[in-house]
Design a protein that fits this description.
Blueprint lengths: L1 E5 L4 H12 L3 E6 L14 E4 L5 H11 L3 E4 L6 H6 L1 H21 L4 E7 H4 L20 H19 L3 E7 L1 E3 L11 H10 L4 E4 L10 E2 L1 E3 H12 L7 E4 L5 E2 H12 L5 E4 L15 H4 L6 H15 L2
Parallel strand pairs: 1-2, 1-4, 2-3, 4-5, 5-6, 6-11, 7-10, 8-13
Antiparallel strand pairs: 9-12
Helix pairs in contact: 1-8, 2-4, 4-6, 7-9, 7-11, 9-11
The structure holds nicotinamide-adenine-dinucleotide.
């Protein structure tokens, strides 16, 4: 298949592109390199630097290549940026996605896989429950609103055109190549800082000094598997969760990373961050990966090994 991976210079998209190449597909990556890095794009993929807000450029690419499928990972991914710049967030995430979908249906793309967020669209997930696919959505940030809007657009295009669509709602994804310099991606940030002997801080869930927010950390390898299974039609559902169902506080995460690294770091405390959802844990959809999710310790071992290799 000829597959387009949007955002393929980023953390998740580059792993998805790797997997499609390994499975023998012809892969094109587009990315504007706003947060992605050229060196993340696998050597076997064609790379086109392109901003998905540029509708003419998107149209020209699709007309020239005639893709069979698209894995759409490109996005403005920061919740806090979305609260500061909701218009830019919607321009990239909503309008950019519509540009891609318009070009896709016009040129006969058969299948679109969309990277959505299970971590943001349900809002607060009350103790001790897991958000299921039936849980009502309560997006609390412009980022969550824009992802949910994209899901609705995708449903509309799949309904009106000969387009299959699969929505993958990711929990909190971590693994090799995650950017340790952003404001999100706590696994990458903690790993990098602990390796450098720098202190880390646990932002409060409610009160400074508590164990921090509760998250569902899913290994990037599982997310990649779901992308591959979706495009090879091993996922029959229109929407799935890529998640583990295991809840982990920020403090526990810090301690598990310390253990994986074999170091004892300095773990401090910090106030609650505005806009942080306190608790988000998802019911994993078995069909997404077909296997049990990677355990946190296993995923952290692979992540730590990559960060170590990179700094050698
Ligand atoms: N990392 C997570 O925990 C997580 C959780 C839920 C959903 N997601 C979604 O998964 C996808 C991949 O996220 P990631 O963590 O790999 O982030 P990332 O920032 O590493 O990747 C996003 C990529 O999109 C590119 N991009 C941004 N704006 C663009 C534009 N206008 N035109 C073209 N390319 C553009 C960036 O340069 C980057 O390479 C995103 O859609 C994100 O919303 C991620």
């Amino acid at each position: 298949m000829k597959i387009l991976v949007t955002g393929g210079a980023g953390f998740i998209g580059s792993h998805v592109a790797d997997a499609f190449l390994a499975a023998g597909h012809d892969v094109t990556v587009i990315d504007d390199l706003s947060s992605g890095r050229r060196e993340n794009v696998p050597a076997g993929a064609r790379f086109v630097q392109l901003d998905i807000r540029d509708q003419a450029a998107v149209d020209a690419l699709f007309a020239a290549t005639r893709f069979d499928a698209m894995s759409h990972q490109a996005a403005q991914t920061s919740v806090s940026v979305s609260t500061r710049e909701p218009v830019r967030d919607a321009q990239i995430n909503v309008l950019g996605t519509i540009h891609l979908l318009e070009a896709a249906v016009r040129t006969g793309v058969a299948h679109v896989v969309f990277a959505s967020t299970g971590g943001a669209i349900y809002g607060e997930v009350p103790e001790p429950t897991l958000a299921s696919l039936e849980t009502p959505q309560r997006p609390l940030s412009p980022y969550a609103c824009s992802k949910l809007a994209c899901e609705a657009y995708l449903r509309r295009y799949a309904h009106d055109f000969a387009l299959e669509a699969t929505v993958l709602r990711y929990a909190n994804v971590y693994g090799p190549r995650q950017d340790p310099h952003g404001e999100a991606g706590v696994v990458a940030i903690f790993t990098q800082r602990l390796m450098a002997g720098e202190p880390i801080r646990v932002n409060a869930r409610k009160v400074e000094g508590d164990a921090g927010c509760v998250r569902d950390y899913v290994y990037v390898g599982d997310v990649v598997k779901a992308n591959l299974r979706a495009l090879t039609r091993q996922i029959g559902l229109p929407v799935v969760h890529c998640a583990t169902g295991v809840e982990t506080t920020t403090r526990t995460l810090a301690e598990r990373i310390e253990r994986a690294l074999g170091v004892k770091g300095s773990i401090g405390v910090a106030p609650r961050r505005d806009g942080d959802v306190e608790r988000s844990v998802l019911e994993p959809t078995r069909e997404a990966t077909g296997t049990a999710p990677t355990s946190l310790d296993e995923g952290l071992a692979a992540t730590v090994a990559w960060f170590r290799e990179r700094t050698r």
